Amino acid sequence: MTSPRGPKDNPGDADSRSPRLDAGRSRVTARPSVVIVGGGFGGLAAARALARAPVEVVLVDRTNHHLFQPLLYQVATAGLAPGDIASPIRQVLRAQKNATVLLGEATGVDPGARRVALEIAGRGRVELAYDFLIVATGVAQSYFGHDEFARFAPGLKTLEDATAVRGEILGAFERAEAQENPAARRDLLTIVLVGAGPTGVEMAGAIAELARATLAEDFRRVDPSSARVVLVEAGARILPTFHESLARRAHARLESMGVEIRVAQPVAAVDERGVLVGGERIEAGVVLWTAGVKPSPAAAWLGAATDRAGRVLVEPDLSVPGRPEVFVVGDVAAKLQDGAPLPGVAQVAIQGGRYVGRVVARRLAGRPAPPPFRYRDKGNLAVVGRDFAVLERGRLRLSGWLAWALWATIHITYLALFNNRLLVFTQWVWSYLTWQRGSRLILGRH
Ligand SMILES: Cc1cc2nc3c(=O)[nH]c(=O)nc-3n(C[C@H](O)[C@H](O)[C@H](O)COP(=O)(O)OP(=O)(O)OC[C@H]3O[C@@H](n4cnc5c(N)ncnc54)[C@H](O)[C@@H]3O)c2cc1C
Among this protein's residues, is 148 annotated catalytic? Predict the structure, then answer.
């Protein structure tokens, strides 16, 4: 990582418009600096909302890309390639001249001194001063106190996770093809998903289609369509965030695709050979964790109060209590609305990011603050294989082809760059017509 180039690098350059990367020696520029940690949905929306504000925006992310997580399951099931759903943050903000992008990992915040500590490759520890700080670092996978499961049951949060999961799934079919023992083959072709929220449901549907359609003709010694896909849920039903009637329809649809669903059965153990669920041992070639999440350590950095899940409790304007210059948005923020916590979904992060951008811009312009943040629910969607999705928006509940078409349109619209939209659209049309999947690669030695 290098600091910004050219005359802006000169420490004595009073006109410098770019942030210095060493807050210990000088503050940033003549213009107030807004440091945003996290280039996901919340952080990127905040940066964009500040495009016209008289500030220097510094967006820091530990990856160089904005990831469209709702389509991660399609990378994990070989439908899309990583580059289809990830956009370089630098490219997304190329035209926004008041924004600088840094590839680095935030490791702490000194709210008193208004500095963020970063680890930057090739540079080591650097401190960045801020006038305003927006934390949008999202969540990580949670194994509910059983971190030992992580070795055997990978989760799905990053592109690396998705390509690893893809390798696990495709690799199980390869190993089964080379296996002589029928019982071992059957075990290898058993895929267990732990957690039946939207990600588990979408993954289960996609894996069933992969096995029964895409791979069906490609093997000679095993029958891929005989693969057993088991979706396990500790709660009473699948899709707990959806209305019961929609969950029932998704349940029936998954079963019609050959997915075995086990509800009210918590997983007691996971190891390299399978899972223990509801007192029964299931030998499996692949176990995937689609269950829980835990917030990034933002609350510890800020010394802020949290909800029971560890998310930062925020004020009505999404600032941290007692720190009006520090905001937390997206999955890592705990915000109540009408007595219920806002869900960890992309729209909450996007709307929160935009809102905070507005708060900062108005404050600097000496204008009154906007009314408290209020999330406008645009609806909840989950897709179950081709041609079928469930959609809930207020009192509207829809399932089937129309919901699926809306799901596809909405997802394409919200991809960050035009080329991502084009790539995903083209892949989907091709897959729809051929039942094939564009990215059936096992990377690395398996
Ligand atoms: C598999 C999956 C499927 C999903 N499907 C849907 C869906 O269908 N619909 C929906 O609305 N929502 C969905 N979600 C949830 C949605 O993606 C999140 O609610 C949304 O991404 C939250 O946005 P955010 O900005 O808070 O965090 P994120 O988008 O997760 O962004 C956080 C960013 O912070 C960066 N970061 C983290 N820690 C640091 C650090 N220390 N230093 C620097 N950078 C850091 C990360 O690299 C990342 O870029 C899904 C999530 C997953 C994982």
Answer: no
Residues in the chain, total: 446
Instruction: For residues 274 and 283, give the distance between their C-alpha atoms in angstroms, rounded to a whole number.
Output: 4
Q: What pLDDT score does 121 carry? A: 86
Lateral strand order in the sheet of 389-393 = 380-383, 389-393, 396-400
Give the closest residue to 222 by CA, choosing from 286, 172, 260.
172
pLDDT for res 189: 98
Judge contact between 143 and 149, C-beta under 8 A. Answer: yes
CA nearest to 116, candidates 60, 56, 64, 66? 60
From the alpha carbon of 347, which atom of ligand 1 is closest? 11
* 342-367 pLDDT, tens digit each: 999 999 999 999 999 999 999 999 99
Enter the pTM of the model: 0.93
Query: What residues have CB less than 8 Å from 387, skipping those under 6 apart?
Result: 400, 401, 404
Buried residues in 337-350 as b, exposed as e (16+ CB within 10 A): eeeeebebbbbbbb
Distance from C-alpha of 410 to C-alpha of 182, rounded to nearest angstrom: 44
How far is ligand 1, taken at its centre, from the CA of residue 42, in Å? 8
Tens of pLDDT along 67-93? 999 999 999 999 999 999 999 999 999
Check pLDDT > 70 for residue 41: yes
197 lines ligand 1 (CB under 6 A): no
Q: What is the pLDDT of residue 10?
A: 38
Exactly one of 202, 209, 233, 392 is catalytic; name it.
Answer: 202
pLDDT at position 13, please?
41
Asked if residue 174 has its Cβ within 6 Å of ligand 1, the reply is no
3-state secondary structure of 90: helix
Task: Determine the Cα–Cα distance for residues 405 and 407; give it in Å rounded to an integer.
Answer: 5
pLDDT, position 444 = 80
Nearest to 134 by CA among 335, 327, 356: 327
Tell me the pLDDT tens digit for each residue of 426-437.
Answer: 999 999 999 999
Among the atoms of ligand 1, which is closest to the Cα of residue 293? 53
Q: Are 229 and 287 in contact (CB under 8 A)?
A: no
